[in-house]
Amino acid sequence: MLKKKEKLIGSVILCAILLLVTVIGYMMSKNNNSGMDEDIFIEKSSKEEKSNVKSDKNSTSKETETSNSTEKKGILVEIKGEVKKPDVYLMKEDSIVKDLVKEAGGATDNSDTSKLNLAQKLRDGMCIVVPNVQSNTGNMITAPVSSNVGISSNSEIININTATKEELKKLPSVGDVTADKIIAYREKNGGFKTIEDIKKVDRIGESTFNKLKDKIDVK
Which InterPro entries does the entry mention (predicted)? Predict the structure, then answer.
């Protein structure tokens, strides 16, 4: 009877030990899985953050490039003389002389804007001089400083849209009077569109044009 009782107690103890081992094993397994899930979640979050940061950088870079491109678009023109704020200004490509005078704070009380063609279209590198009312100077608009201005050193071609009076006088059959008329025409009409337009200038006919056509351009 005693042995039977001892066997029963031993069986109960063994079952209890097995149950305890099972519970401990289950708990340890659960903790390990939880740690792995947490590691996976952290790694995933880290990758998402890096992806978001990269995306933000790309977006910022594109915005900066777009902004820089927008800022650079336009033409640089200088204005001096009788204006309130003489300086170099960044203007829109379709701006005219009147827009530049306004941008420079307007003309002073001593200015004489009647000597300017306020409707003339601005070009990059141009310099506008607003004259004094007592000044006797003629042309107040100087040519842009570029390889296409005035006389080309390579081909000896004169740009009739930007050449000075002295440069125009180097052309065949063009003296003081004709040079002044060429300058007056381009200021009044915003420049020559084609070299044939020079025939619209008084004193320049077909025969004179034939002498000029290989020596002028309008670029």
Answer: Competence_ComEA_HhH, Endo/Exo/Phosphatase_dom_1, Hlx-hairpin-Hlx_DNA-bd_motif, RuvA_2-like, Soluble_ligand-bd
Q: What angle do CA 199, 157, 167 make, to 5 degrees?
A: 75
Instruction: Using a pLDDT cut of 70, give the percent of the chain over it.
Output: 68
**Per-residue model confidence as pLDDT tens digits over 56-99:** 656 665 665 555 554 557 899 989 888 999 999 999 989 999 99
CA distance 126 to 91: 11
CATH 3.10.20 residue window(s) in the chain? 74-130
Which residue from 37, 30, 132 is spatially nearest to 80, judged by alpha carbons?
132
- Fold classified for 74-130: Ubiquitin-like (UB roll) (3.10.20)
What is the pLDDT at residue 60?
A: 61
* Distance from C-alpha of 118 to C-alpha of 79, rounded to nearest angstrom: 13
Q: How far is CA 168 from the centre of its chain?
A: 34
CA distance linking residue 51 with residue 57, whole number of Å: 10
If DSSP states are collapsed to H, E and C, what string results for 109-178? CCECHHHCCCCCECCCCCEEEECECCCCCCCCEECCCCCCCCECCCCCCEECCCCCHHHHCCCCCCCHHH
Q: Which residues of the chain are in CATH 1.10.150.310 domains?
A: 158-217
CATH 1.10.150.310 is the classification of domain 158-217: yes
